[in-house]
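hey so i finally got around to running both of the ones u sent me last week. sorry it took forever, my laptop kept dying halfway thru and i had to restart like 3 times lol. anyway pasting them below in the order u listed, first the sequence line then the structure token line for each. didnt double check formatting much so if smth looks off just lmk and ill redo it

first one:
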Amino acid sequence: MKTITDIKQIEQWVKENHILNYFDTTNLIFEAYSYDKGELITSPNKTLHTIMFFISGSVKIYGIREDGSMSSINHLDSPFMIGDLEFSNNGLSLFFTECNTDAICLSLSIEKYYDELCHDIQFLHLLLKSYSSKLIQASTMNTIAPTIEERVLLYFQTYQEIRDNEKATHQSMSLTYNFLKINLMTLVLKKVFYGEAL
């Protein structure tokens, strides 16, 4: 992680990405950081005391099973937010978040603005939207469907419902799209390598 010290550049990013629209609180001071591909952003053994708005790059979120194998949780493409769950969990992260590419984020200190953010209606609405999108994805992932074909149909349905929702966030649509893409790729591979019907 590298600190970006160009204040004018940071202010420009905040403006271009409409970050202040997520807050009622005024005079917020953001910092900016760059991450290299493969770098860890969060892990269960360290606390996160910032809200991070990624304006470029992508990450993968995963856990580690008891046998040491990796359990894939999610994939996020910018723009997306990290730190929403940690905000309500004393900074504790449940999973690992690793950069798939080089990335840049705008960071807001939770410790510095915690009291203000707890009473910031616009920010709390943002958290609710983020929580709901992640809950939708978790529910979709854990829905029991006997075939990949049925899971793909489920993802199509979920994606359409989210797209039709005027309050849907870019992040929730991106997440559902990526789950859909993975399962479609699986179907194609089954057809190519095993000759199974699509």
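and the second one:
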Amino acid sequence: MTAAQLSKRLGINANTISQWARRRRIKAAPGASGPCYRPWDVIAQAWPGIVEAIEARDMPDAA
């Protein structure tokens, strides 16, 4: 998805998403023609606690 599409869907400023890409906090999606990003990468950057909670829920118990 483009920064503008992600901005609209996630409520994050498109300039912020572009800035994260310039600072290499998120990578462009492979095979995309133009600057497109994976929504999960943007969510992880904006709300890391959500990603941690989902990953913790999906991990089998180590015990």
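quick thing i noticed on the 2nd:
The chain has a mean pLDDT of 91.
anyway thats it, ttyl
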